[in-house]
Amino acid sequence: MGEKPSSAFIRHSERIETALLIIISFMLFFIFSKPVQPYVKGDSNVPVAVQSGVYFNNEIRDVQQLMIKGAERSVKAATYTYSAGVLSEFLEKKSSEGVDVRVVAGNNRDNSSPGFDFSVFKTKYGIYHPKFMVFDSRDVLISSSNFSSDETASNSAVLFKDVPAAARILEKEIDSIFAGKINDLCSKGCETEIGTIFLNPGKACMAVKREILRSESSIKAAVYTVTPKNPVMTGLRNRIKNGIDVDLIFDNWKGDDSAIVNGRAFKYLSSIGADVRYDEKPEKNDTLFHHKFAVIDHSTTIFGSMNWTASGCYKNREITVISHDPKIAKEFESFFDSYNR
């Protein structure tokens, strides 16, 4: 039999083992704790992982670029205004690599001819206004941001990873338009992993009104355009008169007559007790406040492309999502509470 190792040898071996474990632990920490960096044009070594969650303003472009860059099979998207830019460059590159890229727009602002499947769709009465992207039939981004949006616009978006049911619905929307038609899918609401999806014209406004009427403590909403006569306004009036705290932010954009488009709704809601304000400080008059979201009782969130107008309710093609995920509500509410304070 061999000799028993000395105690000095054992202590020396234990020190080496401990040192190796420390070195390995530090290596693993630096490898796996490296944060996701936004895409930098010309850098082909950036990571493509991005987390589910709520994103605001310029963060949205980073997320869109990373998700497009990571797509392996397909990218399908809807927007109201389209114009050539960074996103179209990413999509053209993906299309050239064999990825199925399809984009539907309500209008082509610069009359460009993108290098991927592209369709401008005109609805019978209103406008084609949804804003979403689907990646690899699995991941979904719902946004208030158009392809033509830039840093002068304030927008919000929610990214959902691994939501095949929602992805299927939205891909069907894109594919049906490329087939030359628009269907009534989800006009009454479709239950999915991300919440209830509505595609207008349909029942979205009535569903939003129902959620508002269920509120017990507070409603916080940030909306680009609001007009007085629609179901959402009826719900708000009921809650205000029943003592619910209603806090609203509107954009102060002006129409052809130089009057603030939201002026009538602002004046009416203020007169019955809502806390209403315009987003823009004097030095920010060129900033577009383009959000379309509401948080009810700190737990329910309504978001998508629909403004609170009669056209948004009854004429336009829109997407609206009603989510009961408190994490999403918290992110939107934190943004709302910090805006212009």
How many beta-strand segments?
17
- The CATH superfamily of the largest domain is identified as Endonuclease Chain A
Largest sheet report? 8 strands, mixed
Poorly predicted segments: 1-5, 24-48
Radius of gyration: 24 Å
The side-by-side strand order for the widest beta sheet comes to 9-10-17-16-15-11-12-13
Note down, in words, how this protein is organized.
The chain is built from 9 helices and 17 strands. The protein has helices spanning 7-32, 58-70, 86-96, 164-178, 204-213, 231-241, 263-271, 310-314, 326-338; strands spanning 53-56, 74-82, 100-108, 117-120, 132-135, 139-143, 153-154, 156-160, 190-192, 195-200, 218-223, 245-250, 275-278, 288-289, 292-296, 300-304, 318-323. The longest helix has 26 residues, at 7-32. It has an 8-stranded mixed beta sheet with strand order 9-10-17-16-15-11-12-13, sandwiched between helices. Strands 1-8-6-5-2-3-4 form a 7-stranded mixed beta sheet, sandwiched between helices. The radius of gyration is 24 Å and the shape is globular. With 341 residues, the protein is α/β, with parallel strands linked by helices. Mean pLDDT is 88; it is low at 1-5 and 24-48. Helices cover 33% and strands 25% of the residues. The chain folds into 2 domains: 53-178, Endonuclease Chain A (Endonuclease, Chain A, 2-Layer Sandwich); 195-338, Endonuclease, Chain A (2-Layer Sandwich), CATH 3.30.870.
